[in-house]
Amino acid sequence: MKKFNIRKVLDGLKEQASSSVSSGQSGAPENNLMHETLQSENFQLCKTVRHGFPYQPSSMAHDPVQKILAIGTQSGALRLFGRPGVECYCQHESGAAVISLQFLINEGALVSALADDSVHLWNLRQRRPAILHSLKFNRERITFVHLPFQSKWLYIGTEKGNIHIVNVESFTLSGYVIMWNKAIELSSKAHPGPVVHISDNPMDEGKLIIGYEAGIVVLWDLKSKKADYRYTYDEAIHSVAWHHEGKQFICSHSDGTLTIWNIKGQGKPFQTITPHGKQPKDGKKPEPCKPILKVEYKTTRLGDPFMILSGGLSYDTVGRRPCLTVMHGKSTAVLEMDYPIVDFLTLCETPYSNDFQEPYAVVVLLEKDLVVIDLAQNGYPIFENPYPLTIHESPVTCCEYFADCPVDLIPALYSVGSRQKRQGYSKKEWPISGGNWGLGTQSYPEIIITGHADGTVKFWDASAIMLQVLYKLKTAKVFEKSRNNKEDKQNTEIVDEDPFAIQIMAWCPESRMLCVAGVSANLIIYRFSKQEITTEVVQLLEVRLQYEVNDMESPPEGGGGGDRDLPTPGAASPSPQTTGPPTHPSTSSNSSDGVRDNVPCLKVRSTPLKQSSGYQVELVVQLVWVSGEPPQQITSLALNSSYGLIVFGNSNGLAVVDYLQKTVLLNLGTVELYGSNDPYQRQARSPRKARQPAGGLCDINEGSASEDRCKSPTSGKLSFSMLELALHWYRYHRDNSFSRSRSSSVTSIDKEAREAITSFHFCETFARKGDSAITPCLYVGTSLGTVLAVALNLPPAGEQRLLQPVIVLPSGTLARLKGSILRMAFLDNTGTFLPPAFETWYEPNAAGADSEERDKARKRRPVSVSPSTSQELQESQYAVVCSEKQAKVIALPSQNCIFKHSITETSFVLRADVVQMNIGNCVACFCANGHIMTLSLPGLRPLLDVNYLPLTDMRIARTFCFTNLGQAMYLTSPTEIQRITYSQETCENLQEMLGELFTPVETPEAPNRGFFKGLFGGGATSLDREELFGETQAGKASRGLAQHIPGPQGLEGMKGAASGVVADLARARIALDERGQKLGELDERTAAMLASADSFGKHAHDVRCYIMIRNIKLI
């Protein structure tokens, strides 16, 4: 208690003496009622899962037995995919690009080669894969990697043209090296170039084919250590592929040709094909085409072989999209792709290269997509991709994250979203089906909503650390498409390349009401319905929101505790400033002198709008040009389904809209919210035309061009409205177009600064100091750290709510903090979180008996979690306010600050939320310096402070979200969502929740050689690589060539991976050692027996000689 009183006194000294006295009087009894259950041990920060398409992919590999797929990226990331819901993300520490991936097929291991010339062995038998061995080359650059099936010897080709061999069991180099000058003709003086291909003959493991970039292919005999054949072509080689019988191979070249060679050929290709070249009639060589970057040659037992290739199009096909070509028999299919092809793999029935492959699908890795093509069906349809890889279908501009949603919400969204699915997919099941799902312990529903640059809004089921798209909403359908006439040009001239981009979203999960704010200063309110309707005329409100910007001077020191009485009557202007009837389309006009007036950025469609089941337009609100000044973008938004209100604000003002009566209730500039108690001395900047009576949206720079005032969130130049987060990042750390300088105190403000609306919160609380009853209120936070109250007088529910007006009246200032206000929330007198009142969902288009239920729902009293209106004064509430710099807890109705905490002095908070955990509530903050912090409630004790992620990208600031139960997320790249948790309980259960990539599967039997092949030869020939590449025969590798690096797990990690591939390999090695030891002992016994036999033979010979001599003597 004593400690608490000291804290209150210190807080009071910073405000006013009177405030400190009242705080000390009210704080003591209040603290006795509040017991904080959350402690530091309840928090731990860790990454959970990453969703989305791998950003900037560079390589790919597939395990045909385990049926899992691996994708490497240019930033050193690894993404592993099994069956839908089984995904894994790994990261190489160096961050170098992954140039090659090779599975140890059905062994639960993966080899990765990076652009920094390092090779790594990953153990996939644990839920979180880890590196067990690394090898760093010092003298040569790695260009190609090949690991034969069921082999422990890895071939590594280099830029110098040499081939080194690595034992994947111990990750050590063999002394066996294939030097480029021994592989090529001795008479050749030119270097053959880097190694672009290595593979062993399917029928003879002792024969290795090596492709050099300059056009030379060498068939190398591993045992004799010399080249058997050399094949030379005058065009550069990009890839090589074997026929399964090992008698032919095919090469792809830089001039768009394919050459087929017999291994015992006479130096000329058996056949030359130009798949996309025009064949001249005079027999001349076809015109060159673009390079064929890769070719694969797959055979079938009952039909013609498949030749699949990427590239090779004619140069005259300008503007044609990238293509994958499938040649099967006499037919050639050209499959166009949406993005450039990075790599492709053919999925086959067998992992053995010396058998008929029987290809059934092709996995095509594109720069921004993953496509799987069904080869078994006519027309080659694609499989429906079950992974959440379409997050970036249009750039993400904003995100919201909701945990513990109503249980019926996800089924409802899935029901309407399933009708949006495309048709024409392959009827077969998704072929990448390996792994097992985790044992999820999280049972609560989670939903992620993403807003996109093209105006779409996507709802995702994020429950149990999975992600699946539920429903897609296209907001651009509400507006007319732009035409190339003067009128439309005037409407869209100030809009950037993404005029429909989503800026902010507000969603009520209980009522399913949705409001989205677009970059073109527009809002759309949606209701959820399971029935289709046709809207004849989209209802529209046009708002003239323009306020004359004033300079301001700072309030006197200690102004944080100033007078909070009501503003002078008449100071506010509650009358709505709208143009046109509510149901009439946009009516733009220009004044006589050519100045634009009443012109919105977008034009709402005037034709009937067919709306399918799902979210349907209820109302459109647009800000319009006023006297030549364009509308500025919306910076804050809130919705309350119980009150039937939405409120939005921007850099100069706010507007409250009743979406039930389709009218504007309040239209004020920020200054008018203060009334006569404005703490800032604001003076007119310069004489202008008659100022608009309502608040306005003006650009931050007085001299900036008007075209820059409606910028898309995806554009290169950011505007004020790209969330307050982006504004502060630029304001603190970048020299940009914003002229405002930031001070660490609200008492030192640049005269060019403007007070923007940064946050809203609907609640049922005490509107004024000393009130004895709670009323519906709207709390407003500004960029100068002020929290203002607005009282709401609502008519009774039912028909009266639709007929009687809602009265809105500003009620004074609640508090001032350092920095912009980011979040507000309310607690009851026991410290329990008080969510805003809400209305339960009902079917808005119901008929008959359902309509009666709808009417009953409308007349029903809104769901409210606030105390009753008969609450006595001592049963107080607590307002929690968090700004960029600090957090405060304020007792109501006394309005005394009882707790205050300085979150950061050197940085600023980007995102703050009041979240509910399993056993209590807390404030969660993400700072620009990368720290994630949690504070207890109501005491604001620091519980967690982790330096997690420095703000290196505006995308993170724009998309970071906290939600209940210790979950958070952000967009880590343009295509990927990273989810994290700050809950100790979730961290402990995470291992069980993650899926397993490796599952025990028997390796298919090797192909039968057949009687005659076994009798006369011709079957596959094996090779004792251990004897050939081992240290005994090959010797030791050069010491400085490569450096072996143990995995980060160290020795303990190696022991912990006892069930992993390395343990299996180690056991195999021990078995081989034991076998060698036994063979050695057998050799010793054999030698002893031979020596004994020699001795016996010698003695026998001596005995025979003795007998012969004796017989002679006797004769």
TrEMBL record:
Any one Gene Ontology BP term: exocytosis
**Which InterPro entries does UniProt cross-reference here?**
Lethal2_giant (IPR000664), Lgl_C_dom (IPR013905), LLGL2 (IPR013577), V_SNARE_CC (IPR042855), WD40/YVTN_repeat-like_dom_sf (IPR015943), WD40_repeat_CS (IPR019775), WD40_repeat_dom_sf (IPR036322), WD40_rpt (IPR001680)
Taxonomic path: Eukaryota, Metazoa, Chordata, Craniata, Vertebrata
Q: Which UniProt keywords apply?
A: Cell membrane, Coiled coil, Cytoplasm, Exocytosis, Membrane, Phosphoprotein, Protein transport, Repeat, Transport, WD repeat
Name of one Pfam family that matches: LLGL
Identify the stretches annotated as WD repeats. Answer: 230-264
The listed locations are:
Cell membrane; Cytoplasm
Name of the protein this chain belongs to: Syntaxin-binding protein 5-like
